[in-house]
Structures are given as C-alpha cells and as structure tokens.
Amino acid sequence: MKLFLLVIGLLFLGVGQSKVLLQGFWWDFWNDNYPNAWADYLAELSPRLAEIGVDSVWVPPTIKNPGYWVGYAPFDHYDLGDKYQKGFTGTRIGTKDELLRMVAIMHANGIDVVQDGVLNHVTGAGASDGSGGSDPAAWNDKYTNFRYVSFATPATTENEADYLSRAGRFPKNWENFHNNPGHDCLSGDICAGYWGPDVCYYPGAYGQSSNAIHNPPQSSDYMRNEVRSWLIWYKKQMGIDGWRFDAVKHFLPSAMEDFLYNLQFSAGWASGGDEMFAVGEYVGGGAELDNWCASVQNRAGTFDFGLRGSIYGIITGNGNFDMGSIPGAQQGNRLRTVPFVNNHDTFRPILTTDGNYNGWDTSQELAAHIDPYDGRLSAAYAVAFAVDGTPTVFIEDLFDLGKLGNRFTHDPKVAAQLPMRSDIANIIWCHQHLRFKEGAYKVPHGSGDLLVIERSGKAIIGVTDSWTAWQTVTIGTDFPAGTVLKDHSGATVETATVGGDKTVTIKVPPCNGEALNGRRCYAIWGPLTPPGYTANVRETTQEWEMADDLGDSHPLSLQQGGQLPAYSVETRTVGKIFVAASSPVTFYLFLSDSLNGVTVELYNDQTLVHSESPSVTGSYTPNFTGWLTIKVRNTEATSPGQIVWVVMTYKPPAQVTTDLFDSKLNATGDWDLYHRMVNWPPSKL
Fold first, then answer.
1. Non-local CB neighbours of 678 within 8 Å, separated by 6+ positions
2. Closest of 473, 432, 429, 476 to residue 457, by C-alpha
3. What is the residue range of the signal peptide feature (predicted)?
4. Which of 207, 380, 514, 591 has the fewest C-beta atoms under 10 angstroms from its C-beta?
5. Quick one: 663 and 599 in the same domain?
6. Using CB atoms within 10 A of its CB, is residue 121 exposed (0-12), middle (13-18) or buried (19+)?
7. How many distinct structural domains can be found in the chain?
8. 3-class secondary structure per residue, 386-441
9. pLDDT cut 90: percent of the chain above it
10. Which of 135, 279, 155 is nearest to 552 (CA)?
C-alpha cells in the first residue's frame, strides 16, 4: 500500500495542487447589506481570506438568469449584469462593473477567481412575461426562442414582436436543444432535459426559428462554436483564472475537451495554458470519474466523490471508522482531483428567518451533508488537505453562519460578526506555509483509529476519529535525521526529533477539543521554521469588445458597448474599472479598421481626467481611488464605423468598503432616471 501510494504521489503531483479553493457562496446566498451584490460581499471578504492563505475562490455563475436567481438557470450568456432585459439590469451577483471590480480586488489580494460555468442548459425564453419565447414548430419544449437585447436593439417594449427582433449575440432556436432533427434523443445522461432546454452539442443541432424576426442562419456545430467563442470572450472580459463546470456528466465530453483546450491555448493574452485550473462536477464512482478525466485529456479534474464517502464515514462512524482505509477510497486519476467535504449541492439546511439552522432539506441534497458543528469536521478537512489534489473549503465550514442569527445581516469584514472556525483556518495556513504539495504523497501509517500521511520532507499530518484517546505512533519519515519538528496545529507544545534511523514519534489529539487551542482530531508536524507562503498579488487585465450586438443602449442598462458610429466623433462608453490612487493604468486597443485612429477618454465621474488621441496604447496614473470610466470614439468625423477591443490593466486597492463608491455614477451624468429618460429618444419610450 505504501509503495503504491508513493508511486501515485510521484506520478500525479498535479496542476494547481498547491492552491486552496474556497467555495464563496451557499445555495440561495444572500446578505441584506449587499442586496443583489454578492460581488461586493466577496470583494470585501477577500483580505480576510488572503490572510489565512486562501488563494482561489469559486464564484457562482455570473450571467443573466430569468430572475435574480442564484446563477444555475442561464438566460443570456453575454449579459454580465449590464443589459436591461427581463425587467432588470443587474444579477444576483451585481452589475457588470461590480463583478469586474470583485475580480480585480481578489487579484490584488493574491486570489484566483474560479468561475462556475453552466454549459448543459439554458432557460427563460421570452420577454419579461414570456412573450415571444415559444416556437410552435419545436418538437419538445416550445419555449426555445432565445433572443437578447444589444446596443443596436435595446428593449422598447416587452411584446412578442419586440422580443423576436432583438439581435444580441448568440441567439438560440429549438434545433439547438434536445431533441432535434440532427439528434433525436430525449433520454439518458446526455439528452434528458433535467433543468431546462438541454443543449445539444452534436454537429447537426442547428436551424432557424419558425417565427422569429431576427433569425440569422446557422450552420453545423453551431452550439459548440458559439459556446467556445463565448467562453473565450468571458475569460477575457472578466480576467477569469480557472473554472468549475456544472453537470459535465450531461453533455458530450468531446465538447468539454474542445472548450478547455481553447481556453488553455486559443484565448490570446488570456490563454490559461497547461496550468489553468478546471474541475467538472461529475457525480459517479471512481472509475467513471477517471474515465471522464481521460476523455477530456486531463484538462480538468473532478470532485472526488469516493474520497468524500470516506470523509462522510469519519463523521458518521462515531469513532469506529477504519481510518487506514481512506487512501484506498480516492479515485485513481488524481492529476487535477478536488477533494471536498461539503458544497452547495450537499448542504441544504432549513433556515429560520434569521438564517440559523433548523433541520435539513435532505431531499434536495446531492449527497448527505456534513454538519459543520460536528466535532469531527476537523478530521474531515485534515484528510482533504493531506491527500493529493486541490482541497476545497465550503464557506459554511470555514465561517460560523448557522447559529449566530446574523446570516443575512453580518459584515464580512468584521471577524466578530463572521467568525472563522479556528481548526479549518489553521489547516489552510499549514497547507500553504508548510507547502504540503511540494512533497510526495506517502502513507507511513494507517490503522483503525489513526491515519498518518507524510508530504515528503514537508509535513506529517496525523488524523484520528477517536473522541477521547490521544494517538502516539512512531513512523519512518523522509525528514533528515536530527530535524526538530513541531506541531503547527498548536495542539501540543512538545517537539519531536527525527532519529538516526529516520524515525520520529508524533502525537495526535482526540476529537473532544481537550487539546491546546481546542484542536480536534489532527496534528500537523513540520520544521520549526516553515518555508513560508507568499500570495500572488498582481494586476488585473480585462478586455471589452465594442460591438453593436453586445452591450445595451437602454436608459435602464449600464449604457455600455456598441461599435464606434460611422462618420461621427460620438463617444461610446466601454465600461468602468476601480482604480487606486498612484497605481498606474495601462491600456491598448485592437481596431477593426487600423487605418482610422481612435481617441481614448478616461473620466472620474463626470470629469475628463485623461485623453489620448489618436492612440492604440497609453497609460494613466490616477490621483484618486474610485471608479474610472472608459470611453472611446473615432478621432476624425471622416472615419467609418468600426469595432474596437479595449484591454485595460490595473490594480485596485486590496481593501474596499464598496458602499462608499457608487458604481452607478456615470461619467455622462445621465444615470439619474429623470435624465436618462429625457435623453432617451421618444420613439423608444
């Protein structure tokens, strides 16, 4: 067993395994201080996460849903909370400006952004009341006319004719979903429409609507080609670092591999390369998970449900679980595996009005939950962090949200209002500062009550499920003879010295909390002076495409986007970035008509603070902290219209109190509803 695991550790020391991934939301996430602005909540939480060593955060789906839903009912892929449709502009996450600020603030704290992506289905066809969504020719679900607003075609009314005339990018018709003439299938993992019109990635899934007014022709592989293009746009626009893909069991692995390859190598400056983190949600046994990883050429890993079964056994075994059996429960292919304890699909508490736990809605749980108040939770996380893979921490496990009565009202910046569980924070700190994953994975001891894993020469992690008994064991180790080790969990102040025979004796506390610092179930032995951890604090680069089929000109939208108009020097608003005083901003542009110059204008609220004309590159150092609005225009009124791509690189402050900076101020001064309606053409009122 030990030799086998050593070989596996050497072969599969995988991509991104030094990362610690926090799932930054629970199902139906909400805070009254950040209504429909979860991006602001996470932005303000980021410094606390960075302090303990969290260096990646999984954020919920961020595209427009039919309502202010939690993200898993995608409607318009190109609406990040900037378009006015379905009767509102923002999303559950916030506006597009707030979303992009969140990404940049996370980067300024050394945190990667892992975006949840839903590629299996779309939903919500039709205007705000469903008008125009139905196609009578559809074989199955009639509500498969998907049309979207854009800068050129904003919503003027919510009737059928208006909806079916909208020309936003990536329209969809009934032939793009199961079943269709190119793939007549409605059952099984790939074809069943569990959550809405089920996307078909087979080549023959294309065709036109029978009743839409905007009805461009489609061609073979329409959905695969369009999703590929969208994902690349999405990565560039947001500055995304990694991905969690939803329900990957329910669409073609060949499509997933295609998308991953192109995100790695065909996204220009935003290409993620071999190191790009990606994980697919595939619910199944170990062999199924391994096969799926192989089918996508190991470009993504999976959540290790087999290991999670053993972790659940620790919790439910009442001290009688066989700890030595845990390593054998892991899936075989661990190149990019993601060990986990809880997630939003396994954790569905019934809540009181103030957000406290009041039972469990087990009928909605994908797998049985683990109660974060269980005394053996620390054992679960110690295992998840010790084995190979990128460990994931669920937000309700790191933070005490279930008993304080302030789930919906707390300030995430204030530790007293949102306290961390000390054991989980300590395990994260140890993983990062002792650099677990730089050492090969070895199992020097496994017995009924004790599992010991060594990350070769980096750390020795002991885990027990015993409630009352301290565990003491002598093991062989890769630490050099004479090395003095300490328990970085703080459960004991004793040290242990590696003998000349390369053995060392360690202690592990029981789960009843009697150890120093209240530590339960685990010890982490390592050098007296850890090698340390440095966060990857950095700038953010984001790219805006200025085209008429993107953005929105409606007065209730953010009024961003649109190509530069022909023979005019009228400006178009690109978007906003959140800048820090004295921190340089650089930019460059790609022009569809390189012979005609473009002027870039930067605004602080309504004040022009910088202009370069004509320019495709430039820089500006602000003397203020806050929103910087970006605008572009043709330099000469003799220039034809053109599409422009604007790439901005900047670094915001790492700490921000978001409500001090109104994201809705517009440099044109027309955000106020009265002024917007005055400026809106009468024909569109």
1. none
2. 476
3. 1-18
4. 514
5. yes
6. buried
7. 2
8. HCCCCCEEEHHHHECCCCCCCCCCCCCCCCCCCCECHHHHHHHHHHHHCCHHHCCE
9. 92
10. 155
**DSSP secondary structure of 284-337:** S-HHHHHHHHHHTTTSSEEB-HHHHHHHHHHHHTTT-S-GGGSGGGS-S--SS-
Give the three-state DSSP class for 269: helix
Residue 446 belongs to domain with CATH number: 2.60.40.1180
Q: Which of 251, 198, 190, 260 is nearest to 228 (CA)?
A: 260
pLDDT in tens, 456-512: 999 999 999 999 999 999 999 999 999 999 999 999 999 999 999 999 999 999 999
CB atoms within 10 A of CB 619: 12
- d(C-alpha 326, C-alpha 167), whole Å: 54
Closest residue by Cα to residue 585 from 547, 531, 623: 623
- Which token pair is 63? 């595209």
Residue closest to 272 by CA, chosen among 95, 56, 71: 56
DSSP E strand boundaries for 465-547: 471-476, 484-487, 495-497, 503-508, 522-527, 540-546
Q: Which residues pair with 543 in a beta bridge?
A: 647
- Select from 404, 408, 401 the least CA-distant residue to 372: 401
Verify that 586 and 523 share a domain, yes or no.
no
Contact at 8 Å (CB) between 585 and 621?
yes
First CA to last CA distance, the chain: 73
**Containing structural domain, residue 570:** 540-684
| Contact (Cβ atoms closer than 8 angstroms) between residue 106 and residue 181 | no
Q: Considering only CA atoms, which of 19, 38, 20, 18 is closest in space to residue 28?
A: 38
**H, E, C per residue of 139-199:** CCCCECCECCCCCCCCCCCCCHHHHHHCCCCCCECHHHECCECCECCCCHHHHCCCCCCEE
The DSSP code for 249 is: G
Are 302 and 293 in contact by the 8 Å Cβ rule? The answer is: yes
Q: In which region does residue 433 sit, left (phi positive, over 0), alpha (psi from -120 to 50) or beta (all else)?
A: alpha
CATH code of the domain in which 640 resides:
2.60.120.380
Tokens read off for 110: 């050394």
The Cα 366–Cα 256 span in angstroms is: 22
Number of helices (H) and strands (E) in the chain: give both, helices first.
13, 25
Q: Check if the beta carbon of residue 147 is closer than 8 Å to that of residue 213.
A: no
Scan for tokens 């560039």, then name that residue. 236
Q: Which among 263, 294, 295, 291 is positioned nearest to 278, based on CA atoms? A: 263
For residues 616 and 323, the model is more confident at: 323
Secondary element (H or E) of residue 579: strand 572-579
What is the SS3 assignment for 593-662? Answer: CCCCCEEEEEEECCEEEEEECCCCEEEECCCCCEEEEEEEEECCCCCCCECEEEEEEECCCCCCCHHHCC
Domain closes at, from 527, 555, 576:
527
Give residue for tokens 């009743």: 211
Q: What percent of the chain has pLDDT over 70?
A: 94
pTM of the predicted protein model: 0.95
CA distance 455 to 527: 12
Residue 316, domain member (yes or no): no
Rounded Cα distance between 649 and 628, Å, is: 12
- Each residue of 350-365: b (16+ CB within 10 Å) or e? ebeeebbbeeeeeeeb
The two structure tokens encoding residue 386: 């010790």
Question: Is 548 in the same domain as 649?
Answer: yes
Q: Are 89 and 145 in contact (CB under 8 A)?
A: no
Smallest Cα–Cα separation from 95: which of 418, 473, 578, 591?
578
d(CA 334, CA 301): 7
- Least-confidence region, from 9-23, 238-252, 367-381: 9-23
